[in-house]
């Protein structure tokens, strides 16, 4: 028995989704709250806590993304998830591509905002980049939940 078999058992949201998809969707739904907390630290001038939280949340997000990608690849991908859905394949595909574009851009912006933070602080661009990244995190969360509903609820 493979130690990762649990990933593909029934999820905890009581939908058609496997466990790993429920877990990732749950974490992605919390992501804006976690990032907002990190931003709150900066607003309270608790910069070390802000830096630590942003790096920790970003690193955890990359780990979750890797876990998600593994699960999707092993379980057959988008087409296999769409088998039980009542939503048209073309509509779900458009929403999925929209989600992937937003989340990819957000991941790149988030990484750049973290790794170039000292340079950005000197040019006073860090705050603006952080707010744009936060908007991307919110959109990533909302579109990820949308994709989940299309594949496993409707």
Rg calc: 17 Å
Q: Find the count of extended strands (DSSP E, 2+ residues).
A: 0
Instruction: Report low-confidence residues grouped into runs of 5 or more.
Output: none
Series of H and E elements: HHHHHH
Mean pLDDT: 94
The main sheet comes to:
none
The helicity comes to over 70%
Percent of residues in β-strands: under 5%
Query: Total number of helical segments?
Result: 6
Amino- and carboxy-terminal Cα gap: 32 Å
User: Helix/strand/pairing class, anyone?
Assistant: mainly alpha
In one word, what is the shape?
elongated
Q: Could you characterize what this model shows?
A:
By secondary structure, the protein is an all-alpha fold. It contains six helices and no strands. The protein has helices at 19-43, 47-75, 77-82, 89-115, 117-122, 126-152. Helix 1 packs antiparallel against helix 6 (126-152).
List the defining traits of the structure above:
mainly alpha
Structure, briefly:
The model has no long low-confidence stretch (mean pLDDT 94). Helices cover 78% and strands 0% of the residues. α1 runs antiparallel to α2, α1 packs antiparallel against α6 and α4 runs antiparallel to α6.
Map the helices and strands.
Elements: H1 19-43, H2 47-75, H3 77-82, H4 89-115, H5 117-122, H6 126-152
Helix pairs in contact: 1-2, 1-6, 4-6
């Amino acid at each position: 028995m493979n130690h990762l078999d649990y990933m593909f058992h029934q999820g905890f949201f009581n939908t058609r989704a496997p466990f790993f998809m429920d877990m990732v969707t749950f974490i992605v739904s919390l992501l804006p709250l976690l990032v907002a907390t990190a931003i709150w630290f900066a607003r309270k001038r608790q910069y070390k806590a802000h830096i630590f939280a942003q790096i920790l949340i970003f690193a955890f997000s990359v780990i979750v993304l890797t876990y998600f990608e593994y699960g999707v690849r092993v379980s057959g991908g988008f087409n296999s998830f769409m088998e039980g859905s009542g939503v048209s394949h073309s509509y779900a595909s458009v929403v999925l591509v929209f989600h992937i574009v937003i989340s990819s851009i957000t991941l790149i912006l988030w990484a750049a905002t973290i790794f170039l933070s000292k340079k950005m602080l000197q040019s006073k661009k860090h705050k603006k980049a952080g707010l744009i990244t936060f908007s991307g995190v919110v959109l990533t969360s909302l579109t990820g939940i949308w994709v989940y509903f299309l594949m496993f609820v409707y």
